[in-house]
Amino acid sequence: MDLNFTLEARCPETEARLGRFRTTHNEVETPQFMPVGTVGSVKSLDPRDLTDLGATVILGNTYHLGIRPGVPTLEALGGMHTMAAWPRSILTDSGGFQILSLTNLRKITEEGVQFRNHIDGGLLDLTPELSLRIQAAIGSDIAMVLDHLAPSNSPRAVVEEAMGRTTRWALRSLAARTRPDQALFAIVQGGVDLELRQRHVEELCAHPFDGFAVGGLAVGESIPQMYETLAFTAPKLPVDKPRYLMGVGTPQDLVEGVARGIDLFDCVMPTRNARKGGLFVDGGRRKINLNNARFKDDRGPLDPTCTCYTCRTFSAGYLRHLLVAKELLVYRLLSIHNLHIYLELMRNLRAALREGRFAAFRREWWAGVPAKG
Amino acid sequence: MDLNFTLEARCPETEARLGRFRTTHNEVETPQFMPVGTVGSVKSLDPRDLTDLGATVILGNTYHLGIRPGVPTLEALGGMHTMAAWPRSILTDSGGFQILSLTNLRKITEEGVQFRNHIDGGLLDLTPELSLRIQAAIGSDIAMVLDHLAPSNSPRAVVEEAMGRTTRWALRSLAARTRPDQALFAIVQGGVDLELRQRHVEELCAHPFDGFAVGGLAVGESIPQMYETLAFTAPKLPVDKPRYLMGVGTPQDLVEGVARGIDLFDCVMPTRNARKGGLFVDGGRRKINLNNARFKDDRGPLDPTCTCYTCRTFSAGYLRHLLVAKELLVYRLLSIHNLHIYLELMRNLRAALREGRFAAFRREWWAGVPAKG
After folding, report:
1. pTM over 0.80
2. C-alpha–C-alpha distance, residues B128 and B320, integer Å
3. Reduced to 3 states, what is the DSSP secondary structure of residue B278?
4. B312 Cβ under 8 Å from any chain A Cβ
5. Cβ–Cβ of B72/A297 closer than 8 Å?
6. Distance between alpha carbon A95 and the CA centroid of its chain, in Å?
7. Residue B372 lies in a domain
8. For a 10 Å CB count at each end of chain A, is N or C smaller?
């Protein structure tokens, strides 16, 4: 499905761009951050929390949902929008990343990936076609092709082979599409080898995908390597399609990703950190550890500059007490805070682009980031 | 502090009564159920959830809050109303019950109770005066006296000794009061020995307590024994003061407690059961186990007769999926459901009393309870 991606502004000094696209569920403004709803809920948050936060797309994990509850139950329950009572858009990954990170991988063949799942050890063959079938049952607005991600320190021949397979799997995915209401994004691989990235962009962009992701980053390479690869790759993608940087990242990565031409991001970082007491503050420029004893008697908000429900309602001292006592409520309250920081940063980036002051915003934002010690 | 408890209706066929009282925070209609906010939050729920549910009083645990975060932090953070952003009433227990159930109890003397706490094993002497000091730091609207609860199978002499001590500690508590905005309730002990109950009621009711609790029930005796003791004891308490049945119970216990003249109840049952998938349905008449595979593909609500947020929004199949996957969101959604069942039952009991049809409501309610089998 064509998302009718339209560009509304471009920064003259960087590759940053302001745009919007439409799914059958809603209109999505870009650049945008997508909270991760791994197994069918953004951990601890209900759909009202997410709409209050201004989230417009959430992510579902094909690997997790395909194993549990599985396709028959997904279909019986009407797909993820109905299940999770989520009225806005959903993007699903293809399952490839979780297979590498979570499972006992058996083998990768031209046909697909064979692995034992992390729930009950069951053997599964995931093919590009099955991945799309699960994504169809989830009913996501945007599906991703199954890709073959080579570890970032792999020899060139291995990266090249994975790249070629990713292209062939992407073309099989195009052919296997069943839902006219579902967009399909391809994934550019090639590691940190710019020549391979160039070649893969050319291979994939010759085909009618509805958007393109930059894959294989934030998997072990250095931050300068990631930024360099991104700066090289993103601007070569079609200007009239959304560009998605998968699994990234810190607030700094969002600002720099946007500057390099990225429109969509997802990451578990804000929610996963929140559950451990790692809170982004000051517009995402700094991080604090709420477990620290200095917050014990702190009657002020955990971030005086923040306007989220948590900061408007509760003291840092109370939140720290709940965290230390492992009280269930705290995971939701801290997740609300961190997601607010991320989504507010994206709103600020979009406003800066709209008003032609992105480069200035970026400079001023970085000026408030403390030097690493 | 006098709560200005006023009776508005009495059932001519039972001891049930409709009333209301006022704290400095709000007006509380009785009979009323109080959700338990053990360590400073009703597990998984925020204050909006609780006001949406119609809760008007929540309970705080003096034992838990006194150990962590402790009096200095409670005072620094402004007490539990400010910490938890809870604008309505709070009742605190005295800590006596948790000392028996959770700690390594060292000794009980006339002075107080010595024990090692369950968090870091620290040694603490809890006296009636210290319990009130912690309750003053929490800032509850209603405080309870420290009592000595003898196990329900104790010899008569042991129950008698505990009773005498409870009276003496209650009088020390009266003398140790510091907050003019805090009511103080005494606790009637005496096990299932009706003569001892009679005697303890007479001892305590001679003193200016603001309300009276029936303690020492639901601690091992049979349900008929509990109901008999309650039927004997509750009507002997002053008619113009609230009567509180501590730590009870099932929806059946609420209906029967009200019929025997009880005004206030608290219990962890709705929230603790919810977190394990034990859901009360059909107005509290039945309980289901959401872990059961029969809910796997169930697209309907978990309770078709329920109007709570969870039942209006999500399918039983989705909730079961979240429960099986141990997703954090589910604990809040199921707690909302069970507390709605409890608080709605209390609303229905009050409406029946107001409209002079309590006895009929009780009969009809029980007619829908399935026979045990």
Report:
1. yes
2. 45
3. strand
4. no
5. yes
6. 13
7. no
8. C
